[in-house]
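Thread title: Can someone regenerate the structure for this chain?

I was given the following input by a collaborator and told the matching structure tokens would be attached. They weren't. Posting the sequence so someone can regenerate them.
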Amino acid sequence: MAKIGITRKNEWINRFRNYGIYLDGRTIGTISNNETREFEIPSGPHTLTAKIDWCGSKTHSFSINEIERKEFSFSGFKYASYLIRITGGIIALHFILKHLFEIDFLIWLITPAFLFLGYYFTIGRNDYLIIEESS
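Best answer:
Regenerated them for you:
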């Protein structure tokens, strides 16, 4: 049988949540943070997707023969870890400046970050995870 290897990158933002792995619309397993798994699948054309809660990835189509092995890597969207850190830093800076110097407008700096995250949690929810095929 053909085999696919799936590696999930080490991420801070989704560390404690597993990704569901779907082959041709059916669940074949889950993968946790920084884990590698291997699955035996039938040969032929297939679609591969990943989901986490209500968010997921775009459908990745591929074809595989009986003796072939394909490698895939899963990760969150490109700037997720930076976005969370920057947003947390701005919130912390806001509270420090508010209590020490009574500066109250800094909280508005996180509005673009919330809009960016809002996109990935609503209309861009199928762009939240990324599947890359290794050669």
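The longest strand covers residues 44-52.
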